[in-house]
């Protein structure tokens, strides 16, 4: 019980953000030599610590992006790189089919407002497109559909258009609708949105994993009671993490509402924080944990390779 409370408190202090997102399943951002040229021009080598991660996702089949405290870090082909453009403290980071959505705070030397509000950009390109609430809001819990780009946020502090609560926008932040979120659990940590169905949304909360199929008006719990995290949608499945005294990773299948547990690497008082599914390789995905560890698997959890060890790249 003490271990469970410690994990929950640790998650709360980190301000567990959206993934799916983060981590949502997306498509590649280019092909062949043009993509390689874009990567070379937009990145530099990186060897250091990946700290305060607030989202992750596959930019393409070979490139995994982490939104860290000092900018976007990339794991590509076994090597570590960092974006030369996005050296900001991004939160609510969600990779989508044509880039990413984010919130957060500007980095040193940036001319972005603080907080940045809701922004959209591309990892390999300079600049962001401001969508809403610049200088007003920082959305830690935010989910964006990978192809429909439906945005769901937890607004923790009232701004010029929103009270506190859960909201969604289906037009890139031009208008916002407050959702009822009945039976949505205790304390929302993460939000994930289905890549195609804008009304299908999941919440990771202090009491478990909840799903809605009516745009967030009503929710049902699909997991055991426990600390939820690590949400990631594919077309027909929802991946999620749960901590009930021990960590677990599961997949929920929409067709028959069945659940299957996936093997995890050995963890010592740790738990899954984010999940990112590879858009092109079916059995390949990555996890990031509460203690700052990250692992990848290419055989659906049968074996794992560690690429970050307590914040340090490997």
TrEMBL record:
PROSITE patterns: PROKAR_LIPOPROTEIN (PS51257). One of its GO terms (cellular component) is membrane. GO terms for biological process: post-Golgi vesicle-mediated transport. The keyword Phosphoprotein does not apply. The keyword Repeat applies. InterPro entries: Glycosyl_F510_1955-like, Sortilin_N, VPS10-sortilin, WD40/YVTN_repeat-like_dom_sf. Coiled coil: none annotated. Keywords: Receptor, Repeat, Signal. Residues 32-42 have a biased composition (Low complexity). Residues 21-47 are annotated as: Disordered. Residues 166-226 form the Sortilin N-terminal domain. It comes from the Bacteria. Residues 1-17 form the signal peptide. This is Sortilin, neurotensin receptor 3. It comes from Halobacillus alkaliphilus.
């Amino acid at each position: 019980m003490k271990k469970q409370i410690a994990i929950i408190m640790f998650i709360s202090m980190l301000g567990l953000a959206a993934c799916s997102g983060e981590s949502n399943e997306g498509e590649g951002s280019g092909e062949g030599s043009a993509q390689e040229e874009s990567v070379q021009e937009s990145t530099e080598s990186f060897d250091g610590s990946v700290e305060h991660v607030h989202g992750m996702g596959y930019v393409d089949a070979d490139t995994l992006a982490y939104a860290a405290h000092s900018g976007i870090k990339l794991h590509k082909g076994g090597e570590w790189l960092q974006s030369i453009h996005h050296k900001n403290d991004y939160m609510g980071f969600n990779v989508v089919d044509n880039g990413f959505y984010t919130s957060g705070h500007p980095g040193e030397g940036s001319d972005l407002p603080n907080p940045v509000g809701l922004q959209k950009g591309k990892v390999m390109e300079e600049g962001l497109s401001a969508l809403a609430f610049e200088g007003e809001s920082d959305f830690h819990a935010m989910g964006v559909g990978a192809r429909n780009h439906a945005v769901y946020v937890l607004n923790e502090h009232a701004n010029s258009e929103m009270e506190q609560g859960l909201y969604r926008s289906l037009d890139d932040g031009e208008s916002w609708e407050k959702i009822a979120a009945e039976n949505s659990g205790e304390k929302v940590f993460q939000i994930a949105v289905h890549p195609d169905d804008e009304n299908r949304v999941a919440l990771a909360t202090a009491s478990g994993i909840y799903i809605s199929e009516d745009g967030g008006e009503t929710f049902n719990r699909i997991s055991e009671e426990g600390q939820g995290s690590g949400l990631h949608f594919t077309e027909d499945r929802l991946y999620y993490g749960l901590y009930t005294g021990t960590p677990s990773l599961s997949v929920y299948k929409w067709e028959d509402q069945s659940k299957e547990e996936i093997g995890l690497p050995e963890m010592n008082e740790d738990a899954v924080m984010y999940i990112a599914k590879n858009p092109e390789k079916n059995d390949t995905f990555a996890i990031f944990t509460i203690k700052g560890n990250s692992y990848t698997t290419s055989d659906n959890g049968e074996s794992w390779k560690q690429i970050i060890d307590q914040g340090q790249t490997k």
